[in-house]
Write a structure and sequence with these properties.
alpha/beta, 4-stranded mixed sheet, 14 helices, 21 strands, about 30% helix, globular, binds uridine-diphosphate-2(N-acetylglucosaminyl) butyric acid
């Protein structure tokens, strides 16, 4: 691969910020929103709740003034886990939320118990009724909440629910991910009073109201990692723009350990692959450790490294479903509980494979770019959930990649109901 690729806005940041935007009785304009399927799903959910959401050249407009419906639709929420942020939105704004237990990538058990316990700490009553989480409170009250594990989703949902609660909320063992920090900066611009985001203790002073503002979403660090690993495995040399290097310190360290040369200049990253990648050991963990979302891509990259790599997944319990597919392409990977032992092979070969989840799909794509011959990735529409203009961007880097329309594209057309079409991308 050769050429330059610009990075889009962060999906995971955008999902949280879109829910936050609807907290305000006024209009926010969100810039740098990635035009991806998950973003469209969130836009549709917010519209169902009564928000006005539309896209134009300025960005994605969200006005939460008319949010009155406290029940989120099952057929949309089940598609992705980030949709559960509307629980924090509805509880924080209206004191009542009825949200289906969320779906999303099948990468582990992925409960929402930490979110629900947090809502209870704020004084809400929480019950599961017919598959829906029903949370109610007359008035939410600030609390001290020690999160069992530094969960990104629970931290974000608690920030959404508590920023207009009475008094002070202290989140301990909070997630430190850049997406949490982005959300805090945006909420503060709206008038919230949040301190400590980016550390493991976040203090939220409840305010009476929030206003809509203009805001630009941070770049997607996971997209950076994916393209860098694709360049590394293909013996490529690419320039990646719109990068925030400090969000990727560990992934960059690991790429360098594998022999990849990285040259950072402000927000531009030059990636030069070595003639031979070297094996290495990686362990995923909450930020600033190595991100679990790059575990799958890096395993793919290491299939062609010299030597044996050990990759340990500590965040999710089933994030190795793509490994069987990689084996079909000639990779030698042994799984021992949460650890993948990857013995480098000289060559991968193209094969029909199936994307099991978003980042697993990215891993197969990375392998396919380097494999000899053609690979057909089934269920490839899952990649649209989190990679903007994927085929265009890859083609721009010299990859030979083509999108074959499938049955699932029709499902999207069916969901283009009146009023939703304004956010159709
Ligand atoms: N967990 C629970 N109970 C909870 C919450 C989490 O047991 O109530 C467990 C999870 O099952 C997991 C661990 O705690 O084992 C960490 O989960 P976390 O809550 O941090 O993850 P998340 O909020 O569900 C977000 C991203 C994921 C990313 C993880 C980790 C969004 C919408 N999703 O998920 O992104 O992998 O943080 O960084 O922001 C992706 O983009 O492909 C993706 C899966």
């Amino acid at each position: 691969m050769r050429g330059t690729v610009p990075i889009s806005g962060s999906k995971n940041s955008a999902l949280a910020i879109m829910a936050a935007a609807a907290l305000a009785d006024g209009e926010s304009v969100l810039e740098n929103i990635p035009q991806e399927a998950d973003i469209r799903t969130m836009a549709w959910i917010l519209q169902e709740l009564g928000a006005r959401v539309w896209l134009d050249d300025e960005g994605l407009h969200i006005d939460g003034s008319a949010v009155r419906n406290t029940k989120a639709p099952y057929e949309l929420v089940r598609r992705m886990r980030g949709s559960f942020y509307v629980a924090g939105l509805l509880l924080g704004k209206l004191g009542r939320a009825e949200v289906p237990l969320p779906g999303g990538c099948a990468i582990g058990s992925r409960g929402v118990d930490f979110h629900l316990r947090g809502f209870e700490h704020l004084g809400a009553s929480v019950a599961i009724e017919h598959g829906f989480v029903v949370a109610r409170a007359k008035r939410l009250k600030g609390c001290k909440y020690l999160i069992n594990r530094a969960s990104v989703g629970a931290t974000i949902n608690m920030m959404l629910a508590s920023c207009m609660a009475e008094g002070v909320t202290v989140l301990q063992n909070a997630a430190r991910e850049p997406e949490v920090v982005d959300l805090a900066i945006y909420l503060n611009a709206m008038g919230a009073q949040i301190r400590g985001a980016g550390t493991d203790e976040i203090r939220i002073h409840g305010v009476d109201s929030l206003r809509g503002v203009r805001y630009s979403i941070i770049s997607d660090r996971l997209e950076v990692g994916t393209y860098a690993m694709a360049a590394a495995i293909t013996g490529g040399e690419i320039t990646i723009t719109h990068v925030v290097p400090e969000h990727l310190r560990l992934p960059f360290l690991k790429l360098e350990e594998a022999g990849v040369e990285l040259v950072i200049s402000d927000s531009t990253l030059l990636v030069k692959a070595p003639s031979q990648l070297q094996a290495l050991d990686v362990e995923t963990g909450p930020y600033p450790s190595f991100p679990t979302d790059l575990q799958q891509p890096i395993v793919s990259m290491l299939t062609l490294a010299e030597g044996t790599s050990v990759v340990r997944e500590t965040v999710f319990d089933h994030r190795f479903r793509y490994v069987d597919e990689l084996r079909r392409m000639g990779a030698e990977i042994k799984l021992e509980r949460e650890t993948a032992i990857v013995r480098g092979v000289p060559q991968l070969t193209g094969a029909p494979v199936e994307a099991p989840d978003l980042r697993g799909g990215a891993a197969l794509l990375i392998a396919a770019l380097a494999a000899e011959g053609e690979t057909e990735i089934r269920e490839a529409q899952i990649l649209d959930r989190g990679y903007e203009r994927l085929v265009d961007k890859l083609s721009g880097l010299g990859a030979q990649v083509e999108r074959i329309p499938g049955e699932d594209d029709e499902e999207e057309v069916l969901l283009e109901l009146p009023g939703r079409s304004a956010v159709n991308f």
